[in-house]
UniProtKB/TrEMBL annotation:
It comes from the Bacteria. This is CRISPR-associated protein (Cas_Cmr3). The lineage of its organism: Bacteria, Bacillati, Bacillota, Bacilli, Lactobacillales.
């Protein structure tokens, strides 16, 4: 096996997709205070699967494979690609997955000044509070437990957690032992874009309006033995149809706005020839870069270059160098650092990467959830499979912590892409 340190830095503004994003037509899955149809929230850090795909791309290019946007390849080329990176995309469904001569990548971390390791701050870190200058984890009360459906659970000691301060956030520098804020590492700004409505959009919109009108007629008007002209006439222009439908709703709903009026308002808001929207974009501060360790089988070339990732295909400069260090050394360094700052007798687990659990959490933990979806390719079928609206996967974010000696029940088969990496911290501080 050969280990590489792969670093990548954006050459300009970048953004990575979030499940909390806009939709011009349709129903959102979030509360009103989280959702704005004109504002796109984006992630600062790429998904593990995104970086895994980037590494697979680099392996193909580094080993002489000419890539086609239409995914059409002859049999020999497909066999070579399969041998190098496997036949199918990585899947969070888990199970047996083969990626050819690519063994695995580590969790994504940040490098500062080409030598310092920066990771997500453990959620149990009390550092930053008055009188606490270096890492100090919350301590559980062993003599007092709380009865739950999962059994007895120990909780943090009094004053260990302040709800007004919340849990630890930002980033943590392993080399300096200091906290680094999000603003120390990332610059975020909001840009304005224009989304043009296509002819297909208008066709879908009119069909949605017709369907809504039929529902209203069946629910309201036919009870009065009346028939609407709109129910019989689908040849009106889109503007006339919307106006006539609004008039009809006002006629039969004089006192209050009902479900049909609310739905019509949502649909009609999408009927602009041009729609302005706002989108978050990010930059890395000077001195910072993303990094992963990559393990490949012998005989495989891996070289750097320019790659596009994220929304709008932002360019990243990728550098590759052979390394005697690897993911195991990264985990070991992090584990040793936190152990020497954790009181003896205390055990907790730090999620270096996002994790996917098999079962519910049964002990005390500080967790943050996320939902992710994936694009899939299948070389056997020579095609790209799109996003599946039903393909959500629930993960717990990197930085989450679990307390106790019990082994964390993790979904198997997703470790190759850098998921499910947990450092067990057994306190050694006297």
């Amino acid at each position: 096996m050969t280990d590489y340190l792969v670093t990548f830095r954006p050459l300009g503004d970048y953004s990575f997709g979030s499940d909390r994003r806009f939709s011009f037509v349709g129903k959102n899955n979030y509360s009103e205070d989280e959702y704005a149809p004109y504002f796109i929230r984006t992630n600062r850090v790429p998904e593990q699967s995104t970086v895994f795909g980037m590494i697979r791309y680099l392996i193909l290019v580094s080993n002489g494979i000419q890539l086609n946007q239409n995914f059409q390849y002859d049999d020999d080329t497909r066999d070579n690609m399969k041998d190098l990176i496997g036949e199918k995309s990585f899947s969070l469904n888990g199970g047996v997955q083969s990626f050819g001569k690519l063994e695995k990548i580590s969790p994504i971390f940040l490098r500062k000044n080409s030598k310092e390791i920066v990771i997500l701050n453990p959620f149990n870190n009390k550092q930053g509070r008055e009188g606490i200058d270096q890492f100090e984890p919350m301590i559980l009360e062993k003599e007092f437990t709380l009865s739950t459906s999962f059994g007895e659970i120990a909780l943090p000691k009094s004053k260990e957690y302040n709800p007004k301060e919340g849990y630890g956030d930002g980033y943590y520098n392993i080399n300096t032992g200091r906290l680094e804020t999000i603003e120390d590492i990332f610059r975020t700004k909001v840009v304005t874009g224009v989304r043009r409505v296509t002819q297909n959009d208008l066709v879908k919109l009119k069909q949605n309006l017709l369907d809504l009108c039929k529902l209203f007629v069946n629910a309201t008007m036919k009870q009065k033995q009346e028939v609407s002209n709109l129910d019989k006439n689908s040849n009106l222009s889109l503007t006339d149809f919307i106006n006539d439908f609004m008039d009809l709703l006002e006629k039969y709903n004089k006192r209050e706005v009902n479900h049909f009026q609310e739905e019509l308002e949502k649909l009609s808001q999408s009927f602009d020839e041009d729609r302005l929207f706002k989108r978050e974009v990010h930059q890395l501060q000077k001195g910072y870069e993303f990094a992963v360790y990559v393990t490949v089988k012998e005989g495989v070339q891996l070289t750097g270059g320019l790659v596009s990732m994220g929304q709008k295909g932002s360019l990243f400069k990728v550098s590759v160098q052979k390394s005697e260090n690897n993911e195991n050394n990264l985990e070991s360094e992090i584990t040793k650092h936190f152990q020497k700052h954790t009181p003896k007798g205390q055990t907790w687990h730090y999620c270096l990467s996002d994790v996917c659990l098999l079962n519910d959490v049964t002990g005390f933990a500080i967790l943050e959830e996320k939902l992710v979806r994936q694009l899939h390719t299948d070389l056997k079928e020579n095609r790209l499979k799109g996003l599946s609206l039903q393909g959500h996967h629930l993960l717990y974010k990197a930085g989450s912590v679990f307390y106790g000696d019990d082994k964390i029940p993790l979904k198997s088969g997703i470790e190759a892409a850098g998921y499910n990496v947990i450092c067990k911290i057994e306190g050694s501080k006297v």
